[in-house]
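Each lists sequence, tokenised fold; shown next:
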Amino acid sequence: MLSPAGQAVSIALERPGALWLALLVIPVVALYFLRMRFRRKEVGSTFIWRSLARSTTGGETLRRRSILLLLLQAAAVAAAAFAAAGPSILSRRVLEPGVAFLVDVSASMAVRDCAAGGKAASRVQAAAAAAAAEIDALGKGIPMALFACSDSARLLLGEPTLDKAAAKASLRELEAGSAAFDESACADGVSAALSRAEGSWSARVFTDGGLALGGARLSAAFDGALGAVLVGSSAASVGAAGLRLESSPGAGPRAAFSLWNGRAASADIEVRITRKGAVLASGTVRNLTKGSEHRAKPFPAFMRSIIEAGGLIEYHKQRMGER
């Protein structure tokens, strides 16, 4: 659990209308002055009273002791009114703005064209090293939330943390998967996870540039407080996202995906679609502005049958029914 960086203390009143009782100070002050007035009375001689008359003016001048008594009575009335209002002290934690570290673990991050610690490393390892360096530079008491992002966002360590050592250890265990980067799903997952955490958050995303929506959806999730760190041999990388297997009557199965070329010049790109090591399709993607088309080897017959049946289980059910 996070420790508070500070405490904000405030006072709440259960019955604020009771503070009107403080107006009783007015009659208390009025009665005090009326009580100090002396009554007039005729006497035969003022000789006896002359010395006393020099030391008092019958209440026209207040003595220090009289002022102190008046203040005590007024304070008693104010304290009674405040107590009747039902005061209570509220204390809440004040946290430093947190930082969310989003590390891309999509398939393209497995490419080994980077260096980390003087050795050849994959892009996900380089991203983890860059994130660890930024964690070391964070000030004391700043919450951190670490996410592994591809087709969804997975919160590392189970919750935000202040433990830099644990955060860096979780980054060292990251590996690239086989899924593409789904920016909308990641943004929704990060927002849901951080909605349970206190305080405001900014984000840093470590990627090879394969954000399906260019970072717009993630940026909106953090109200624009998003920074990006690109990893890879260069920013001019090639990537793919949004792979879908579609089937239509008469046309057979087909694969649809988005492909981008970050290089300055056009290039032919070899594409292979695999599942558990088996190549499902392969081919060359060329620039369509030149009138060329993408042609790939078709799926094997058994794979087309599985896709058209709606999955391996349904395929076996159909085969068992035929027998």
In short: Residues 1-5, 288-297 have pLDDT under 50 and may be disordered. The longest strand covers residues 238-248. The two ends are 59 Å apart (CA to CA). Residues 7-92 form one domain.
